Amino acid sequence: MTDTPDDNRDSPPRPRSARLGGPDAPGGTDEALASRLRRRSTLRRGMAVFVALVAVFSVVATGPVAAGLSAADHVPSGDSLETNAVSTDSTEPGPTARPELSGSFSRPTYTGIAGDPVNIRYTASNSNGSAYLLIGGNRLTDSGKLVGFTDVVKLDDFDGTVNTRLLGTAEGTASSCARENTSCDLEFRDQDGDTLDKDLSDLSGATGAGGLARPLVPQRYRLAITNGTFMIEDSGAVTPVESAASSDLVLTKPTFHDEIEVFTTADPENVEGGGGDESLSALEQNGLERTAVTKGDRVVLGFEATGIWGALSHFAEKEGEDSLQAGQAINHTVLRDFLRAEEGVTLSVRQTNPSMNEPRSKLDLADADPEDVSLLLADAKELETGDSTPGRFYLVLDTSDGGPLGNPEPGDEFAVEFALEGTEGQRYAFAETDSEPPDPFRHKSNTPDQFPYWETDDGTVSAEASFSIQERYFEYDHVTDDGELLVEASGGAVTGTTTILPPIEMSATFVDDKRDEPFRSESEVSLSDDGNFTIGADLGNADPGTRLNYALYEGTTLRDSRTVVVVDDTDDPDRLAIDSVPENVTVATGGNLSALGIGVRNAGGLEGAGTLALDVDDGNITTARDLTLSSNESRTVGFPSETVRLDPGEYPFSVTLDGDQRNGTVTVAENPARTTIDDGEADGSDTDDAENASNVSEGDENATNTDGNSTDAGGNSTANDSAGAADPDGNSSNPGGNSTNPDGNSSDPTGDSGGGDGDDEPATFLPFGIGTRETLLGTVVVGAIHILGHWV
């Protein structure tokens, strides 16, 4: 052991290794010892300067130093602090020392995160009074700067939880001896063993009763179980007379997760079997990782950070909540109060696309109804946290009108930001106050909002996300222009997409009251995670064209009602088809195609339109019929207006209708109503002579001319009933106005025009021996054609 300084040789010896700044302590030198003597002399002259924090409790440090801890804290240059230390080794026991003190810690080192609660498990007993826990300061590196602080906690009522955000402040541990409502039996003696008339509040900076510059920083702190009797040295160092056990508390710097979890979930009241359960597991089970939130559903926002749980615990306690645990649901006002506390923590949810003259929607926790906002706690996923301390919190927001987001509309977009504020060159510091200890949530007014545990080179860190509001809808895959549902007759189903989430219980009914026995069936709605739905349709073997009533229910609430039309194919519900086509049909040359009857039907179930197209002999005859058929209608369609101008023979044909094609054969036969006429001289020869026949077919030189002029057998023009009728070139058939006989002479031997003057003349005879009057009466003459009262 090394003796005490010369100016204090009469004091009982004590090991310097147990005092901060001693030669055997980290960084201890003779120069440091001299410095302490100079400060002691200053105290004796009445110019005392109090320290903020110090403490060493055991003879030898028992706990390892955690890797990766930050450097020693720096006290602002304006703060004049003096080193006070607490030693765990007792001096020579005084006459009133309290024996029979025992205790132990469950671990040699407790680890936690600065700003979060830490649970310390211990045993302690003192047969001669209460046992106390000293929480003292230390430093991890020899920076020459003061760190930490000391508090004394009465173990009779201590539950083992140390809130590192509050320790040493006016809101510190409930059983802290620095608080007025805690009755502690502490004794303070001088180095001579004489009792001093002091209490904890008189030891500013030595015990946490005052002088704390900022919240507990990431460092190593000593723990010791004592009997409540302390010796105060001339230097101001406080030494426990007796220590039963010691341990270390190592606090690390808080961490931040830069992603925000977003998913949507249905209102638990609407989920079958949900019963309003808003546990995180229930929300996740019934939710989807979807940033498009259906209006009326809930958006869940998850945030992850450490260093905030001590403050949250404090505000939860004020709201009457128990200590915060993962899986716990608490009142959202706890978060509201926390965000108002100027902890350098910000959270905002605001609309990014308001229209002109539209107020911007944003999250308002202050006026939010607890039924519309929930706050849930959970274990961290990405970050390391202490035992039993939550690492994430979830904010659950109802998107209905009048909720925490106001009146969001489909199409509204929202940005979410969660940040821990920091300004380089600045650090969080408690507000200066005459009262001790300091208010934990008042910082210096000339500094910006700062996260308490960021150092001078730390800036703001933030996480961002977004979500949007979408309409609540059912959209069917197969409907008519009038909105009627189409369902296939065999194995049919109603399908489509929806923004309603899968856990919702929905059903559909199909009713047909027009049958002899009314029909009704009910089917469950199957909702998938990808937004699709399927409704199995039991239609009772309904035929295409049948109409039923359809109703959609969400629980017992009617959501939709419309007509269902049974069809053969929902992709082609108004398809027309060819039912029958004759394999062979015979028609006469010059006749029409009325004999070619095509059977067609509506094969879809809805009224449909189509075009029936006919092609004979690869394009020699083409025609089409436009058709409209009602549901289940069938009919036979012919082509009576199409004339056959083909020579006798067999010709292939095809008919098509809406992609349906059939083939057959048309046989063209001689026209039984036609007689060919010999084109020779009128010699009484057979009128059936083909060369003399008056051919009515198009292209025959001897065909009867329908423009009023006829051509005789010799190719000469024959006049109409008007002697001056013009031939096809516009000239009179006979310049003299006389008709011409077959050999080119006038029909009258004298050369006069027959009947030109209106006299009653004998009837002119045709070359084959039939007179005009006979022709008028004998219309059965083969080959003759009567047009507009004229025979040709």
Features:
792 residues; 31% strand; disordered C terminus; eight-stranded mixed sheet; disordered N terminus; mainly beta
End-to-end separation: 155 Å
Q: In one word, what is the shape?
A: rod-shaped
Low-confidence stretches: 1-95, 140-148, 206-210, 682-784, 786-792
What does the main sheet amount to?
Answer: 8 strands, mixed
Amount of helix:
under 10%
Output mean pLDDT: 75
Order of strands, main sheet, comes to 24-26-29-28-27-30-31-25
Cα Rg? 55 Å
* Portion in strands: 25-35%
Global structural class: mainly beta
Number of helices: 5
Number of strands: 43
Structural overview:
- This protein has 792 residues and is mostly beta strands.
- Mean pLDDT is 75; it is low at 1-95, 140-148, 206-210, 682-784 and 786-792.
- It is built from five helices and 43 strands.
- The strands form eleven sheets. The chain has an eight-stranded mixed sheet, with no helix packed on it. A six-stranded antiparallel sheet has the order 15-14-17-21-20-18.
- α3 (309-318) crosses α4.
- Helices cover 6% and strands 31% of the residues.
Question: Secondary-structure blueprint of this entry?
Answer:
Elements lengths: L29 H15 L56 E5 L3 E5 L3 E3 L2 E5 L5 E5 L14 E4 L6 E3 L23 E3 L5 E2 L23 E7 L2 E4 L5 E3 L2 E10 L8 E5 L14 H6 L1 E2 L3 E3 L3 E7 L4 H10 L10 E2 L2 H8 L4 E7 L21 E6 L13 E7 L14 E8 L40 E10 L3 E3 L8 E4 L4 E6 L7 E7 L6 E9 L4 E5 L10 E8 L2 E11 L8 E5 L3 E5 L3 E11 L5 E9 L4 E9 L4 E10 L5 E9 L2 E10 L40 E2 L5 E2 L53 H6 L8 E2 L2 E2 L1
Helix pairs in contact: 3-4
